[in-house]
Amino acid sequence: MKKTFDIRNKTILVTGAHGFLGKHLIDDLKEHGAKHLICPTSKEIDFRKLSDVKKAVKGVDGVIHLAAMVGGIGYNRDHPAEMFYNNLMMGVQLIHEAWKAGVEKFVALGTICCYPKFTPVPFQEKNLWDGYPEETNAPYGLSKKMLLVQSESYRAQYDFNSIFLLPVNLYGPGDNFNPESSHVIPALVRRMEAARAKDVDEVVVWGTGRATREFLYVQDAATAIRLATEYYDKSDPINIGAGFEISIKNLTNKIKNIIGYQGKIVWDKTKPDGQPRRMLDTSRAKKEFNFSAVTDFDTGLQNTIQWYEQQYLDK
To answer: 31: Cβ–Cβ under 8 A, 6 or more apart, which residues?
Structure first.
C-alpha cells in the first residue's frame, strides 16, 4: 500500500484527544512517528463555536475529528436535542473551516448508530440509507450521518480529501465509567463490581438480553484510524469493527464470570433493548488499508475489568 498522507511530517489537529479513544490514538500516532500533534482540551477550544473552530484549523495539515457528545441508551433518550445539536455543529463547522483553511486531510468519525434500525447483519456500508436509525439514538446517529453527506459533497465539488469512518461500540482500559453516560460494557462492569463488593443478591439489567452488539477494543480502533488517515483517500464510508456479535445476555454473563459475582441477573423488560442486532461487515477496511482487529474479546474484557479494579477499587 502507498501512503497518501504521511503522519510523520504533518501537523495534525486531533479533536477529542483527551477522551477515551483520543488518548489511545495519540499514543498510537506518536508510536508511528507523528511529531506535530495539536490536542486542545474542551476548555481550550469549544468546537461548537465558529471562532474557536477557525482558530483551531489554522496552519494544520490534517484533522482527525473524534470529539463527540456520547452516551448509552438512557443518556441518548434523555438528551436528544443536545446530542443532535452539539455533534452536528462540531462536525459541520470543522469540515467547512478545514476546507477553507486548505487542510490536506480530514478524518471524520461516524458511528454504528448511523445505520437503520433493521439493517441486515452483517451491516454493509451500502445499507446506510435503507431506513431510519433506532429511535433512542437517532438524533446522535443522524447528526453524525450528515458528516458523511458533507464529506462526500466537499470531495465532489472541491476535491477535499475527507474520509468517513464508522466504528462500532468501543471498550477497553480508560473507558467512561460514569453512571450517567457510560455504554453497556463499563456500565455492567461498574454495577457488577459494586454488587460483588456489597454482596448484593441481584443486578437489574435493561431490556431482554436478546439484542446483540459488536465491540471493538480501543487500541484496535486507534490502529484503524491511523491506517485510514495514512492510506485511505476515497469518499466511500468505511466500517471499523471486529466482525462478531454477542447477545447482551451472553455479554452480561461473561462480565459476571470474570468479576466473580455470585448473584442473580434480573432483566427489566420494561426498558428498551435498543437496536435489535449489530455487527459490521469489515471487509472494506481490510481491502482498502489492511485493517483487521487483533484483540480477542475475552482478553479485552479482562484487560478492561483489571484496569477498572486498579483505578477504582485498589485505592
So the answer is: none
Q: What is the signed CA dihedral for 245, 249, 251, 256, rounded to 10 degrees? A: -170
Cα dihedral angle (216, 217, 219, 223), rounded to 10 degrees? Answer: -20
* CATH architecture of the region 7-172+214-244+276-295: 3-Layer(aba) Sandwich (3.40)
Cα-based torsion angle of the residue sequence 82, 103, 22, 289 in order, rounded to the nearest 10 degrees: 110
In this structure, the chain runs to a length of: 315
C-alpha atoms less than 13 angstroms from C-alpha of 217 in its C-beta half-sphere: 18
What is the CB neighbour count within 10 angstroms for residue 105? Answer: 24
482500559: which residue's cell? Answer: 173
List of residues 6+ apart from 234 with CB closer than 8 A: 163, 288
Query: Which positions are catalytic?
Result: 140
95 burial type by CB count under 10 A (0-12 exposed, 13-18 middle, 19+ buried): buried
pLDDT digits (tens), the chain, 315 positions = 889 999 999 999 999 999 999 999 999 999 999 999 999 999 999 999 999 999 999 999 999 999 999 877 788 889 999 999 999 999 999 999 999 999 999 999 999 999 999 999 999 999 999 999 999 899 999 999 999 999 999 999 999 999 999 999 999 999 999 888 888 999 999 999 999 999 999 999 999 999 999 999 999 999 999 999 999 999 899 999 999 999 999 999 999 999 999 999 999 999 989 889 999 999 999 999 999 999 999 999 999 999 999 998 865
- 8 A C-beta contact, residue 248 and residue 178: no
The neighbouring-strand residues paired with 225 are none
Distance CA 251, CA 16 (A): 28
Written in H, E and C, the secondary structure of 107-130 is EEECCHHHCECCCCCCECHHHCCC
